[in-house]
């Protein structure tokens, strides 16, 4: 399958326009990107995945070509709860009440919230190179704060980060992404330019900052409330992280995810943070291994009707 076979879409998710691409055939698979990127992180994976899955790859609200709603001091418009509801609305638009999820970075934080708020929607979930947000903030030390400086810069009150990043959005993208293990080498030039162009679009820098402000405030409130109530993720979770990344150096991903989810497996891959672009073939192999077997032992490739019995 070529990229020409993917169909762009815009779905109204309760007033927020969500952009994405869809294509392929088979069980529904939602792909979510991270910061400061867009659905283009999946470029190397999409043609293969679409041979086995009905793929839906979106831009999160606030990123890429998706809507950038106004926010207020609560930052609720960019809470992971709101962002997760967007994605569930997109999948329901296409007739998928239950689906698979693979998500990287910020998208994985959205997927975490989705699995808690919409447990009947998520069949299986793969999370790429993160530990839970609350665990990362509470476990912050000098090494983490230095490597992930943007976590603490972007949450500063507006307009300071907006003004500084807005002066040269491309410089921000290239510095943050190029400052990781593999530098800028993993990124195709046109994809990298797309990330730069996306951040330069009106409202994008502010929306990105609001995403992070929400993660440091309202999202932590939601996470703490779940822990107090004993609410954990019920679906199978596969966690992958880069052996050369910051998450591997500063946290124990499996231990942290087992505190908030009941069925967790995973391992490190030989790469840094940007797994879909650094080691796409290894990631695809992991996705086949995890998504093609469901909780009953049935192959998920043959389980489309079981996942979405009303879809015809």
Summarize model confidence as the mean pLDDT: 94
* Count of alpha and pi helical runs: 16
**How many DSSP-defined strands?**
8
Bin the helical content. 40-55%
Biggest sheet details:
8 strands, mixed
Spell out the blueprint of helices and strands.
Elements: E1 7-13, E2 16-24, E3 28-32, H1 46-49, E4 54-58, H2 80-93, E5 99-104, H3 106-117, E6 122-128, H4 133-138, H5 142-147, H6 149-153, H7 160-166, H8 169-178, H9 189-200, H10 204-215, H11 218-229, E7 237-242, H12 246-250, H13 253-258, E8 264-269, H14 275-278, H15 280-291, H16 304-307
Parallel strand pairs: 3-4, 3-5, 5-6, 6-7, 7-8
Antiparallel strand pairs: 1-2, 2-4
Features:
Rossmann fold, alpha/beta, 42% helix, globular
What does this protein look like?
- By secondary structure, the chain is of the alpha/beta class.
- It has helices at residues 46-49, 80-93, 106-117, 133-138, 142-147, 149-153, 160-166, 169-178, 189-200, 204-215, 218-229, 246-250, 253-258, 275-278, 280-291, 304-307; strands at residues 7-13, 16-24, 28-32, 54-58, 99-104, 122-128, 237-242, 264-269.
- Strands 1-2-4-3-5-6-7-8 form an eight-stranded mixed β-sheet, sandwiched between helices.
- It is globular.
